[in-house]
Amino acid sequence: MCNGCVHKQYPDRGNTCLEDGSYLMNYQGCANCHQRDFVLISNKSTEDEDGEEIVTYDHVCKNCEHVIARHEYTFSVVDEYQEYTMLCLLCGKAEDSISVLPDDPRQSSLF
User: Fold this and answer.
1) 61-67 contact pairs (CB < 8 A, 24+)
2) What is the mean pLDDT, run by run of 10 residues, along the chain of 111 residues?
């Protein structure tokens, strides 16, 4: 993918995992055509492997179709938690885990 199109490679996004869209704050502009315009999504695919949903797509320049970054988002249920991950040169890296129970057992142990 293209390091010249982003301000920072794989920025830490904490627990913000994007299944769709682009993190435009990190978009510097297209290193190929030198324009800063919309970022399009292409080659989007969704796979389900052993209970894990994997969404992948390319971020591409609207003007010259230069591939800026490859985005990967995963979702799975492990024990009693929904697990999310994101890895993308443009959007960053992130992980999140949310309890499927009404009261998160991890939060109860803090009190």
Assistant:
1) 61/5, 61/30, 61/32, 61/33, 61/35, 61/37, 62/37, 62/38, 63/30, 63/33, 63/35, 63/37, 64/30, 64/32, 64/33, 64/35, 66/2, 66/5, 66/30, 66/31, 66/32, 66/33, 67/1, 67/2
2) 92 94 95 94 94 95 97 92 95 92 64 50
